[in-house]
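Subject: Protein record for review, amino acid sequence with backbone structure tokens
Why sent: The fold of this protein is of interest and is recorded here as tokens.
Enclosed: The protein record, placed directly beneath this head.
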Amino acid sequence: MTDPDEPLVSVRDLKKHYPIKEGILSRQVGAAKAVDGVSFDIYPGETLGLVGESGCGKSTAGSSIIRLEDATGGEVLFNGGGRAGRTRNDDGTHPNDVTRFDERELKAFRRDAQMIFQDPSSSFDPRMTVGNSVAELLQVHGMTDRDRRRRIVQNLLERVGLSADDYDRYPHEFSGGQKQRIALARALVLNPDFIVADEPVSALDVSIKAEILSLINDLQEEFGLSLLFISHDMSVIREVCDRVAVMYLGEIVEIGKTEQIFSDPAHPYTEALLSAIPNPDPRSTHEGIELKGTVPSPSDPPSGCRFHTRCHRVIQSEEFDLDQSAWRSVLNLRDRAIAREIDVESVREFVAAETDTDPESVPPDAVKAEIRAEFDLPEQLSDPEAERVLSDALDRMVDDDVEAATETLMEVFTTPCEETKPELLDHGDGHQSSCLRNEPDVGAEAVATASDD
């Protein structure tokens, strides 16, 4: 029997890297770090929401936990892998580590853990009736009595809001919402303890979405299920989840109780996600946070905090005192210069076209002004020293000395966020986040500057 005070699922430093190969010999030249050291617990009867942008690695994490994909590293300890779980083997491995299960153990695990997919249409065989598709799992796990299988599935179809007579119909005869109800029945047919729900309502209409979410909640209470609910929709997460884990570029950046996360987000990325939730009040003037800057690749993640290339609260160097938006723009200019993505000649030609002049006659100050406008930089930075360095770098760019300009920007405009990798810090009551602004040794002045606006 599962101890309610111990995790049903414990994920420890889970990694899933996809090799990048090139050349005729397909030699590995790198790896896309889709999941890169994720850790969390899920308790009996609990719903943990895993949320983040598309491409952050949340679906890969779910499929690796359920063992639809083999993890590159880490552990997934199931049903007895918590603090009071069984001791480790002589070789240091854990007997309840799903990532090391053999074929027999994995088949037993499949009875206790199931998955619901985003698109139910693609997970049903169009040549099989939906009843046979659901009953197939019972047959695979040893139930030979055909009539008994049919009775169990018909009962489940009724419990998810369909008819027992739907057993003999085919997938194409059902709507998207009905197919997702059938997918729920299939996930429940083996009476599992744990379900990974990967964007189960994102493809549905709003009214149908509400019905499916309500059904999932009712079935969870009835069957005592633990859920990992994967979604990019924060409003859905708030409705169905007890706790939330926020994922960015393969890492967990914040985790805590749902109300804690929504009322007092401790990470700028979480803050940006929450700002994107639509406000139905027509009188509201609230504007969402626009994330500007460079979107990094999972094959080459940034140093330090992985979010620093887009963060609207990125910490400034101690020697500067700029508006936060201006500081973000300066770093955007620097990063684009490092990536060789600033084409001064194209800027000059654009200004010439706008002013109906010859490109060779465009004044350098006009080119500099256009570069500033492109990066939302003010005509004059509020910090004199920062303005002097920026103006000098722009002068060098316009004089076609891009290397020297880039070197100047790199040497002077730096942030602690790119130099130090933040750890997950505990804010109390299970609320954790990884942001340098929350670390005491960063300095109150830097935190205050980064928290302006």
Q: What stands out?
A: Confidence is low (pLDDT under 50) at residues 443-453. The radius of gyration is 27 Å. The CA atoms of residues 113 and 368 lie 59 Å apart.
